[in-house]
Amino acid sequence: MMLPIIDYRALDTAGRRAALARPANESRATLVQSVRETVARVRAQGDAAVLDYAARFDGGAPPALRVPKEDLQAAPSALTNSEVAALQRAIVNVRRFHTAQLSAALSIETEPGVRCERIVRPIDAVGLYVPGGSAPLPSALIMSAIPAEIAGCRRRILCTPAAGGRAIHPAILAAALFCGIDEVYAVGGAQAIAAMAFGTETIPKVDKIFGPGSAWVTAAKQVVAEDPDGAALDLPAGPSEVLVIADASANPDFVAADLLAQAEHDPLSQAILLTDSVKLADAVRDAALAMLARLSRRSILEESLQRSRILLVADIDEAIAVSNEYGPEHLLLQVARAREYLPEIRSAGSIFLGPWSPEPMGDYCSGTNHVLPTYGYARAYSGLSVLDFQKRITVQELSAPGLAALGPTASTLARLEGLDAHALAVDLRLQSLTDVANS
């Protein structure tokens, strides 16, 4: 049944857990083993393996892995003026919001003669991945390329598939051009992740990989991140999800559209509505099923809506408690005085307040980042930001008087832990200071 209405209030603990369960990928073990084989082959054979996988899985290998700069320069001319303007306006807002995230260096004296600092350095080389599939996703590139630029990453490369050996969609190439990226490689899938993690004859090795993708891409990012010679990943991710909290004041058409907007991403996507209004629940379900009939991704929606549900709760306070336990990627509050509930939200990737804040605004152009933790990781992880493209390094500098005053504390703690060499490194210096003072 698509988008069933369930009385959450009547469920026992096991029933409530089942009502909030996310779709399981039962073939993950097999998938990961296959991905490990792909990664190992790309690491050993480089470009040859990448091109072979492209020919087998993308419908044809591209004529060259690196996209010529002339293709980047020509890409905007293949778009309409309104499409170009939309991309550029989104970039402006994303840049504005992420520039505000830059933090100053920190330097304090924790006590006289003991200075502690934190300095910030960009990650040198980052790989940005944009999936192919049935629709171009230039927004996915903007969300990683702009923070990387602001952070000061010296090298930013893009990998995205050219399905069937055809050209990459001009919207993606135009976004790369507008974001200042000139290294674009026509490769996708797990092989692209492996190529960026370990390098090939053509594709340079990077230190960290960003961007969404299929289950194969996600598994590849995790596999290469396990290897000390590979590349770090941005954040844990699974299928897209949305949770809407709505009361009787909400517009059922708005709520239904918000549920469908995320459910159309993937058959494993999940959309949940928590409401204390039976009337709204019925109206939202009716509206969603009516809208479904005229949407282009109906086949995907019919699968994802079987994994989605409407839960009837006692009140909005209970809805917020349930949401905090679930930890949604996207949380929409369509309730009266929505902002007043904001202090109670503890776990969410991104929050959308009120009836005029549809989730796609965050996906595209409000300025916040749409790369967010899914599958419950929002309980412990944050969405992508400039910080993810930087390293924060601590520095300490002690003067001789500072060491003389604080050194005995370190020596005592080292011996308490049974680490004599730690204590020795301090004691030798303390003795040297004593010798100088007595000479």
The global form is: globular
Which regions have little confidence, pLDDT < 50, spanning 5+ residues? Answer: none
- Based on CA atoms alone, the radius of gyration comes out at 26 Å
Q: What is the string of SSEs from the N terminus onward?
A: EHHHHHEEEHEHEHEHEEHEHHEHEEHEHH
Which structural class should the secondary elements be placed in?
alpha/beta
Mean pLDDT: 95
Largest sheet: 6 strands, parallel
What is the count of helical runs? Answer: 16
Numbering strands along the chain, what is their spatial order in the largest sheet? 1-11-10-9-12-13
Give structural notes.
The chain is of the alpha/beta class and 439 residues long. The chain has three domains: 5-23 and 239-367, Nitrogenase molybdenum iron protein domain (Rossmann fold, 3-Layer(aba) Sandwich), CATH 3.40.50.1980; 29-105 and 123-233, Nitrogenase molybdenum iron protein domain (Rossmann fold, 3-Layer(aba) Sandwich), CATH 3.40.50.1980; 399-438, no CATH class. Helices cover 44% and strands 16% of the residues. It contains 16 helices and 14 strands. The strands form three sheets. A six-stranded parallel sheet has the order 1-11-10-9-12-13, with helices on both faces. Strand 2 and strand 3 (114-122) form a beta hairpin. The chain is globular and about 90 Å long. 41% of the residues are buried. The mean pLDDT is 95.
